[in-house]
Automatic annotation (TrEMBL):
Protein's recorded name: Arrestin-like N-terminal domain-containing protein
GO biological process: ubiquitin-dependent endocytosis
Ranges where the record places region Disordered: 407-452
Gene3D superfamilies: 2.60.40.640
Bias type Low complexity, positions: 414-439
Family annotation (SUPFAM superfamilies): E set domains (SSF81296)
Basic and acidic residues bias locations: 440-452
Molecular-function GO terms, alphabetical: protein-macromolecule adaptor activity; ubiquitin protein ligase binding
GO cellular component: cytosol; plasma membrane
Provenance organism: Cucurbitaria berberidis CBS 394.84
Length: 452
């Protein structure tokens, strides 16, 4: 018996990235070569979250029959839309086609109790997470978030079910407008206050000792502050700045400074995958650290009390690895920003290091215009208003055979007795008289008619 051919065709680009509220349209095609008895034909639009992992498993006394590892797997439906196209019926040999239309929901649908997933994972409906494919470090470990349209044909006999699936890519939409520039916040690093070690007395001269006793810059107490963003979107500049304050001279009257020697910036990615009951603790954490900036021997001045920028044109690459921060039932993705700054004061070195959470926002759709800042003013173009045509007409050039130019130095101010030329010349003279100030003498032009 020839198997029926089942296909799912989605309209538009197959690589399109969908967002909440967008329509998914297409067709279900079924080609039947022989008469078929079917139980049902359904089309399913759903999102799934699947996690897999394994753990060592050993039972003493019965090692031969027990596998060395125990596999765990959990499947969660983020949402499910199902439409029955054909109920139980008999299909004649023919090519069938049906259309479908679904809308991406804004949030998930499942609700779970605390005892099922524990306190660290979401149990209530929340915004849909992005499409994700991840392999963990454990044997057989994986985490998948996928969205699809599936045609499901159930035969009436023992052949079971025939399925055809079309995968869809999904990316969240930013909550509200994303500013053009990332907002930064400051962090006072009290735990990294630094003071230089005292120099040996025998290395100082008498003049140095007197000067150092009077100078507040001789042995400063340095308090660093780091300026960094808490959230960033792909394509935005990541601003990083530092300021050093000498607590013994807050206004820097001594004009003291340090030297920026080195800079290292690392972005860390942490992906968490869990499956099974929380009491068994089958949880995998995958970490990845990418050093984005590594500079040495910078020799950049850091005056006390002044904020100095550390980065310029430092942006996230908008690619498949740039998954926004999210948290769903059994999978989470978060990021951290680590900044290490090497500083010199005289001949002594110290390091300022800070690790802060970094939220990566969803990328803006390319078809949407860039958001405006709060202070940006938009000047709309004026509306087109038709105006009346001008009532001034051009002179009758056909009646003028030629125009010759003579200067006022010839003392010829008389006009020829031509009517048409007189009208044109009078108008020109009137225009010159109006536009010329009375206190200035301008060379006059006289138009003469030349008899041919």
């Amino acid at each position: 018996m020839t198997e029926p051919v089942l296909r799912v065709i989605v309209d538009g680009d197959s690589n399109k990235t969908y967002r909440k509220g967008e329509l998914v349209t297409g067709r279900i095609i079924l080609i039947v070569e022989e008469q078929e008895q079917i139980e049902s034909l359904k089309v399913v639009f759903a999102g799934s979250c699947i996690t897999k992992t394994s753990r060592p498993y050993r039972i003493y006394g019965n090692d031969d029959d027990v596998p060395p590892r125990r596999d765990y797997e959990e499947k969660i439906r983020l949402f499910n839309r199902e439409i029955e196209i054909i109920p139980r019926s008999t299909l004649d040999p023919k090519k069938y086609s049906w259309t479908f239309e679904f809308t991406f929901p804004e949030s998930t649908e499942q609700r779970y109790k605390r005892l099922i997933h524990g306190p660290n994972y979401l149990r209530e409906p929340h915004p849909l997470p992005p499409t994700l494919q991840l392999k963990t470090n454990t044997p057989g470990g994986a985490a998948h978030i996928s969205y699809f349209v599936q045609a499901r044909l159930v035969f009436a006999d023992s052949r079971g079910t025939k399925r055809c699936k079309h995968m869809l890519r999904y990316h969240p939409t930013p909550q509200g407008e994303v500013p053009r520039e990332a907002k930064i916040t400051s962090a006072l690093l009290y735990g990294q206050r630094w003071k230089p070690a005292k120099e040996k007395e025998n290395t100082r001269t008498a003049v140095d000792k007197v000067f150092l006793r009077r100078s507040s810059n001789s042995n400063p107490r340095i308090l660093p502050s780091l300026w960094h963003p808490e959230s960033i979107a792909p394509g935005q500049h990541i601003p990083l700045s530092i300021s050093l304050v000498n607590t013994r001279d807050p206004f820097n009257e001594a004009k003291g400074e340090c030297i920026l020697d080195s800079l290292s910036v690392t972005i860390s990615t942490y992906s968490t995958s869990m499956c099974g009951h929380h009491m068994t603790e089958p949880e995998d954490i995958v970490s990845k650290h990418v050093t984005c900036i590594a500079r040495t021997s910078m020799n950049k001045s850091l005056p006390f009390g002044k904020m100095v920028s550390l980065t310029s044109n430092f942006r996230l690459v908008d690619d498949a690895e740039c998954v926004p921060t999210f948290k769903t039932y059994t999978i989470t993705r978060r990021y951290a920003l680590t900044v290490s700054i090497g500083i010199k004061f005289n001949d002594q070195h110290f390091t300022v290091k800070s690790t802060t959470p970094l939220e990566i926002l969803p990328r803006m759709p390319r078809e949407l215009p860039s958001p405006l800042e709060d202070g940006d003013d938009v000047d709309p173009l004026p509306l087109y208003v038709p105006r009346e045509p001008s009532k001034e007409f051009a002179p009758d050039y056909e009646s003028i055979y030629a125009l010759s130019r003579t200067t006022s130095s010839e003392n010829s101010m008389a006009l020829p007795p031509s009517r048409s030329s007189s009208l044109f010349s009078s108008a020109s003279a009137l225009s010159s008289a109006v536009s010329t100030p009375p206190s200035r003498e301008v060379e006059q032009l006289v138009l003469e008619r030349v008899e041919g």
